[in-house]
Amino acid sequence: MATASVAFKSREDHRKQLELEEARKAGLAPAEVDEDGKEINPHIPQYMSSAPWYLNAERPSLKHQRKWKSDPNYTKSWYDRGAKIFQAEKYRKGACENCGAMTHDAKSCMERPRKKGAKWTNMHIAPDEKIETFELDYDGKRDRWNGYDASTYARVIERYEARDEARRKYLKEQQLKKLEEKNSKNEGEGEGEGGEISDEEDDDDALKVDEAKVDESKQMDFAKVEKRVRTTGGGSTGTVRNLRIREDTAKYLLNLDVNSAYYDPKTRSMREDPLPDADPNEKFYEGDNQYRMSGQALEFKQLNIHAWEAFDKGQDIHMQAAPSQAELLFKNYKVIKEKLKSKTKDTIMEKYGNAATEEEIPMELLLGQSERQVEYDRAGRIIKGMETSLPKSKYEEDVFINNHTSVWGSWWKDHQWGYKCCKQTIRNSYCTGAAGIEAAEAATDLMKSNIARKASSEDAPAPAREKKHVTWGTDVPEDLVLDEKLLTEALKKEEEKRREEKDERKRKYNVRWNDEVTAEEMEAYRMKRVHHDDPMKDFLN
Fold first, then answer.
1. What whole-number distance in Å separates Cα of residue 1 and Cα of residue 21?
2. What sequence ranges are listed for the domain Pre-mRNA-splicing factor SLU7 (predicted)?
């Protein structure tokens, strides 16, 4: 095997090293040892501090692959909390402007902000804090109890001991109070009951509290089971109490039939009843579905249904987003529903009465006996003694409003209902009586005469007089006289104007306009104007 390459100062040193190795192989020279006093195998390179495991298991392992020497700089000490080192009397440059300490600045100062800082007042300079830096090793950085003072746990023990002492004292006072009440009661009853006193003494002994004895039901911790509790941070191990009694038969062992209720081992649930044909009084387990239809599960189901229905009707409610709001609205809904139900019940009872609370009906009414005499004919019809009663409807009858003496619908005319007393066809009208009837008839006669007069006038129409219209839309006055000479000149001007509009080259630069329009010019414009609706407009000019 090759040896490690080592740099020598001269050939002589190299030669001596080779002779020493030959002598060690022959057993004539002592073997080389390491820092721990163990031999170094010459067949292993010297950069490996010890032999591999497959060469010689008795030798040390590879120390170069792990940090086997402890660093002296590492420490397990912790910060001295609240320690102060020096308190100056004057403000120093670079110190905190608020309190005057050199170990921090004004931004990270933990004191209350002063009205005037120590930099300006030069008074009440705070002492400097003790600043420490530690170089922790791998375990020290990850030790959650690093720096914990075990003596502080004595406060926790004292608090619990004080609570137990107060509890024992309270129980003792309650027991003494019970004993005093029982003794005072026994003294009041007398001394004659000797046999009962012994029994009461036994009861008193049973009621005495032994401080060393603790209530098992309060201290029983059941069976602790370490389970993985789901949390938002990824889960943490917590203690969960197992409330199942070990003597109970497991639900999947109640019925071993393969076709019986299905047991889900993952969720440990059996929804159906494993023993449906057994006596209900003897069964202690009827399936998981029984819990869904009873107790608070049923109330929670009703709460969910109410939230869904309220959301469908437009109310801003969500069971998962705001459960407290949904529960409060459901409570208010139940209260309002009960009030409405009781109100409806009271209304019905007030209208129709309550036969259960009324007095008993007399026997003569129950048996149908009375003093009234009724005569019947051979056919069984009533002749005398009992008047025929008209059947009553559920609507109000014979109710007269607005001074009417008849009901609405007692009069009919021209496909309209009305009142017979005043012959009005408006439901909410006020009754006017005979005077209203006469006024209505007079109005009707007047309207008929007006219609007849209008019809006669329309039969012979007056001769229509032809009217002349001027261009601007008004009637031509009777005394309007047009000068033929001025009209001819106006027509010529209108033709020249139209020619200029067609040919832009003949239009002059300096054009003077006259806003005053004479009757002849207006007539010339009307005569020369093109009527777009005229079918012969294309043949003009």
1. 13
2. 136-410
